[in-house]
Amino acid sequence: MDSTNAYLSPWRRLWLHALLVIVLFFLLAPVLVVVPMSLSASNYLEFPPREWSFRWYETFFGSSEWLQATRNSLIVSSLTTLLATPLGVAAAVALSRSRITTAQILKGVFLLPQVVPVIILGIGVFFLYIRLGLVNSLPGIVTAHTALALPFVVVTTLSGLKTFDHNLEIAAQSLGAHPVRAFLGITLPRIKLSVLAGALFAFITSLDEVVISLFIAGGDNTLLTKKMFLSLRDQLDPTIAAVSSILIVMSIVGVFIFMVAAGTGKGRRL
Amino acid sequence: MSLRLNARLLSALETRSKAELALMVLPSLMIVAVVIVPAIWLGFLSFSVDGMPSLAHYQRMIDNSSYAAIFLTTFQLAGLVTAITVLVGYPATYAITLLPPRLSALALACVAIPFWTSLLVRTYAWMVILQRNGILNGWLLDGGLIERPLRMSNSFFGTTVGMVHIMLPFFIFPLYASMRSIDGNLTRAAYSLGATPTRAFFDVFLPLSKQGLIAGALLTFVLCLGFYVTPQLLGGGNVTTLSIKIQQNVIVYADWGAASALAVVLVVIVGLMLLASRLLGGRATD
Fold first, then answer.
1. Which part of the chain is the ABC transmembrane type-1 domain (chain A) (predicted)?
2. Secondary-structure percent of chain B, ordered helix, strand, coil, rounded to 5
3. Residues 132 through 191 of chain B touching chain A, CB cutoff 8 Å
4. What is the extent of the structural domain holding B193?
5. What CATH number corresponds to the domain at position B169?
6. CA nearest A229 in B: which residue?
């Protein structure tokens, strides 16, 4: 790599790296803007703020509507993760032991919720839930979010199972371990990181989901993303800067945990 | 004796009963069905009016010129965003591969942070940066570069910026992986045979990374076709994409047939593009 580098003229390297710096700045700009702005003392959005304060955070923590939406979102994301992770792991384990053609077809089915444009899933689920009376209900929202999160869990678990020697689990069973115990005691610890990554993806997917929630998550079960979307569409409320900063900090902590847990450089899969 | 028993047990375990495997997949399949089956159902409904088979919803798409404008906007937006993402993302990714390990890890972390940041948060930030009395206009005015604020938000331009910001990480990560898997010795061999850096790049490196590039570009294009949130918020009513029209048909006009027909067209286009990307360059995400 380094010796390849040496062949590039300094001028060429300069413009490549200058471009990279601009791209990285472009990518980080929103994060760099939102956090300071949320600390502004003024009534409207200004950057950089002339005076600093926590007033928008006070507004956020003083608003029962925002807090309710935040709580709903955390509950839905947690339930989605708790549902999607075991189900997705079970499905992935079954896929890894099925015949290749069956596994390929089923994997394709599991990826469908990520391939089909989300607006189509949104109107479809809305159409179904109207008939079932599940619009704005917690089970309805969690089920839809779980469908979106499952592909991540299935794909990450499958990639973890690729390097796992299935004979180890069979050995445990031949020594008398119950199949469930053999899985929990032998297989799971070895694919732990993949499962954790899948669970994290599931949580973030649910927490970030906007479009389906716009259709089916209203009333008492309004989610944070829906509330943010509606206030953004109607007016630029500075409280959103505070909400956004909280979410940014959460995602940075998430990236940090993920990088520590799984090593660097792995992107979110589609 | 015990050996034979073990052998029998092993073969029994090896061929886990199909019923057991099916039971493990079934709950997940049912949940996926909750979001997929209604979409298919709507697809069938789009071919009927009041329970009678009819192509009226599709006929209207051809007759009504506003639909042509929506298709054009959607494709222009997806095309422009893809072009910018590829033209900027490819050299930037190449630059990351040239960095020493520590710096490349840092660069990748910079790509990962917006990637993990909520889509709404990023869209909000661009609204604030690009709006009429926003940060960018403020700086341009203070710097004397413009006399009147530019209209950047509530427009096609703002939507493009927001979407490029979302698509770049999706493009960079898989491309980086595919570039890293290229054997550096091949480029070095080209140099040692007297190739100029330009020649080595176009004759050796580019063809080797072509698969990742094409797959990434097609994926970007496909994802752009389905965007809803960014055009809605950064377009401010001035950018109507297919997704927005579908939502309007359902929520504003309660016209499920029209929405479903558009959805069918969108799915067919997306499906064909994905098929093309599979045939052309393998799957970017694998």
1. 70-258
2. 80, 0, 20
3. 135, 138, 165, 168-170, 173-174, 176-177, 184, 187-188, 191
4. 65-281
5. 1.10.3720.10
6. B120
